[in-house]
Amino acid sequence: MIENIVIQKYGIIAGAFLSVLSLAGCSESFDETTGMCGVSVIAELPAGVASTGMTNSTVKFRNVSTGRETELAYPLSSDAKVLAGLYDVEFAGEAMLDATRRVEIRGVARSAEIMTDGTVVRIATHCNKATDDLVISEIFYTGTQQESGNNYTGDDYIKLYNNTDHVVYADGLTLFESKFMTTQKQNYRPDIMAEAVTVDALYTIPGTGREHPVQPGGYVLLADIGIDHRTINPNSFSLEHADWEWYDVSSSPAHMDIDSPQVPNMEKWYCYTQSFFMLHNRGFKAYGIARIPVNKDEYLRDYRYDYEYEQVTQAGTFPMSGSAYRLPNEWVVDVVNCSVGSEWKWNVTAPVLDMGWTSCGQIDADKTRFFHAVRRKLLYVNDDGRAVLKDTDNSSEDFNSHVTPSEIELQQTVTQLGGTTAKTITYDGIIQKN
Amino acid sequence: MKRISKVILLIIISGFTYIYGYAARVSGRVSDAADGTSLAVCAVKVSPLDKVLTTDIDGHFSIELPSGSYDIMATYLGYKPVTVRVEVRASDCECNLRLEPNTLALGEVVVTAKESDGMTTASKIDRAAMSHLQPSSFTDLLELLPGNMSKTPEMGRANMISLRETGNYGASGSVVDNPDYAITSLGTLFVVDGAPVGGDANLQGVGTTSDSSQPDYSRNTTNRGVDMRSISTDNIESVEIVRGIPSAEYGNLTSGLVNIRRIRRATPLTIRFKADQWSKLISAGKGIHTGHGHILNLDADFMDSKTDPRDPREGYRRLTGSVRFTGNWMREWGTARLNAGADFTGSFDDSKADPDLSNGKIDEYRNSYRRYALTLENSYVLSNMRWLSNIDINASASVQDDELARRRQVAPSRPTAAPTTMEAGVHDGHYIIGEYIADYKSIGRPVNIYVKASASGTAGASWLKNSYKSGIEWTFAKNYGAGQQYDLMRPISATWTSRPRRFADIPALNTLAWYVQELLSIKGKGGALDIQLGLRGTSLVGLDSKYKMSGKVYLDPRVNVLWHMPRLGKFTPCAGAGWGMTTKMPTIDYLFPQAEYHDIIQLNYYDTAHPADYSRLNLRTYIEDAANYSLKPARNSKWEVRLGATMGDNRLTVTYFNERLRSGYRYASVYSAFEYRDYDETVIDPTLLTCRPDPAALPYAEMRELDGYRRATNGTRIDKQGLEFTLNTQRWHALRTALTVTGAWFRSIYSNSEPVFVAVSDVIEGTAVSKRYIGLYDSDEGRVNEQFNTNFMFDTQINTLGLVFTTSVQCMWYVKTAAMRRNGVPCKYLDAADGLLHDYTAESADNLMLRTLVRTYNDNQFATVRTAPEVYLNFKATKRIGRWLEISMFVNRLFDWLPEYKVNGMTVRRKADAYFGMELNVRI
Asked: Shortest CA distance to B578 belongs to which of B563, B595, B594, B558?
């Protein structure tokens, strides 16, 4: 196995080396004394955007091994150099579509090898969708801990936020979970990621369209179980005030769900499990919200996605198949890829939806992740005192990873096992509210 | 026809001649040729009558014999056997035998298993081989059987025996534990000093849930037979492991027989200390002459083992003690011999989770097994009756005191429920609020009683001998334990559905068996031909008439033929063949399994404001009798062919065997439709509640769903075939080394033998398919496994230095496994609507839900995986220092050769760890 990986790695290096040779010909050689490589970036712009109309364009090189970032203006000057290494290269810029319409252009090339002089990095870019809808402001998927240290997951929740300056209606908004995990990359076929997200759970907020207004700066709390969890786990908090809960009917006491009488249920469209749905406790999935323009029956009938992939094991290469639902990218309102630093393999949504990922804890099954959430960063507080959160469709940039959940702050419950209670209230887990 | 009647006539006539034709008394004395001391309790065999006498305290023996010529042979441990020919005429005669001390035999020991030259394939391992092997438990002896290799003792799990098979492999060719094939070990009978070690009443375990990560999973012996960890080897004189068709005398087995005889002779005080990476062992034993030829043996053994030497929380301890009395009485009518024994075996497992590593979690497991046993073996050798020469009466009784204690911190990760009723019907369950400490106890008190009486005799002429044996035995097994004890409100896991059970209420298992066996020995120019014909009948008596087995007698016919051919130049060839049926009756657990409880939620109302007072969980409980009244005994049919040749001290045996078992026990899932009411909780207004909501006031829908429960079935198939070979060479005197080559090729098939229900996980339109339809499939699992190994053992014995060392090269040439083909289309399906089985037809495949019952497989799943060779070098040495001391050491896998190999493009690299230890033996 190791040998294969080694071969693969050398293959990649050799491939990269050959492509460099063909592209750069026999230009200058890699500067051995400084370890710097000359690099150029080609941003492949979306249709309708002319390179001449680009302003404020930058390219950020993030060295994967050292974490050091270098930001350069685009187009790069001909003598642009970076230290040889493996990079995530992010492109950001603005363009005028016409005289009045301005769009943000974003793109990322992950794990680009810049090992030789004259390396060319190509970045596919897309127009950043200006969100005129709710965004996910927080995901609390890790759960809390009981006195003994055992994990308690009944209190997981997702918070949505109205980041706009007008009322948005939550009616018909669907919460979804990605089928695939950010920690396990497979060659799923047909590959639909460019057009759709593969989902395994869909719960929709009921309503006719104008029943559930969310004021600017208002939140929607979606809970797993809308009860006061402190009855069961004194280290937890209450979710009785949740706006909605996802509830799964079960006839088996061994795996049952609790239906809080106070909290209305979301409408269950589909869930992969026969027991109950909970957020991935180690955070290996992507969570998002979508507005599905078709009704439930039509969706379940027409958007089934059957895929195949190969699982290579010692016992053989097994063609695997699976079934889930596909959610077209244009219906997706917001999506957040979650992962763990040591385990991240890929993003399970197209870069147009999310260019990065966020996390709680550093390693797989990190016990420090409990009592922590991912929360969207505060951009600024406007004159009305409304928080404007960062939304660049890049969860790495937009989210504060591994921070205290807002419900723990608001209810001033414990922030870690045997630890003190939350004292401060923040906008995003970092910036304190006055 | 004429010939047969002649033979019968001859048998009858010869019988009469013997009865009426006594001629004279032969008496004599057996003594040490060197110093003339009398040899007491020395075996004296009179051929061709096959009478065995024992000498009295002064070394005297005496027997009345008809006229004729006889070979009188005296054998005594540590002496060379001596045979004297006596011509018996009218007058009494004297026959004194003087035995030479066998310095060679004492100095030169057999350090390997010997292939038996008896009627069937068996390996015999004696004291010397055992002490050279330096075992921790009986498990370690199995290395000497063809097909086996040395293994590092695994004291953190029950050690179960498997004979003549590869074991269950996973997809990559490594052995996995699968309780569905427990008949492998359950079907191997362990007999200690004539009494079986009964495990049929063992019921210890943690509920019916099977989670392989739980400490109980690998240590559970219910339905699995004898845990070999608990057998100490230090008081064993010899072990015979019968792999072929056993004599009809032995039953209640499918696979084989392990016949253990313990030390019953005077020995100096022998103390043994052993230490290896994981364990320490101390044992002491002594055999005392108590006068009049009686002997008392006393011994004890203690072993303390850790699964990981760095972790004091997980370990295994064994404590055994034994007192054995052997008495001999010479009387007018013959000799009486009494072997009595009182034994204690304690076997203790402990496992605790490290609180520092598991966040303060409490997770403890303690399992203790204490067995008290009494064994009596009475044998009478009758010297005056021609038609009856031996009467044996065996009796044994054992009581086990088993206790399994489990203590766990249970912390449901979300609110959950505990069903608490012990009765069927509608009742309220309880929400489990918060974490708690759960205590679980299982108290078993299995009692096993065994009585056997048999008689045997011999008749015939010098060229034809007719030995017959018949007997009857009764086995009683019952568990008198208090059973499982725990608080239903605080179950051992948050998803618990099982209920406690009192073991004492379970009926007893009474097995009655009889057997007849005839051994015909014909000697002539064409060599010696032995034909053994046996028939054994087994029935369960007192079994409820609901059971199909009730009142039935299951017959095991068994035939073994052995032909010792005349010398062919330097070779003496022999050939043998056998065919037989073997039957293992079900255990108490398989016959009377724990009832299955089904709890279905009808109302699930959790009140947020008053969770303790107003919440209501209403359940409908069904109790399913998991007993299978049409259960049959597990039956194995086997045949084998043996070829052997001897040239001087060189000996080669090759055996081909073929065994077929299609009715092994397992628990399989069966499904039924269950009805319940689904109350609508959403109409409850929490603000108006003043007490728990009343289901009678709520609207409901009548529902029906399928659910499974487990039932004991005969659904296991194990087909075994293979070729076993053993070659013992003579000692090359220049090198003082002899070579033993053993090995085997095994091909074993493991699969289900009855169609199985499998639930699919698909959810169609919000409904789980498995709640409405369950497919019945002809084949669900199954693997064809193969292995081929050879062990080369060089044993070097330098008597002048008191040094014995063995070097073994153990090679597993390959291990191969492939899943058996299956098409995934169900043969039938169960429909929740009518609860009936329907044929799965082409139309069924058009139904959206039924379509999901077809399981798809691809060719890769049936591909063969083959491993590269594994070669290990093991080294063992024993050095005698002075008269009292012996030091031994061993290193298994001192060197290894484990070449890399590729499977499916992936390189597999393997490594092996050495297993080493030393021991000190003191003889005072």
From this structure: B558
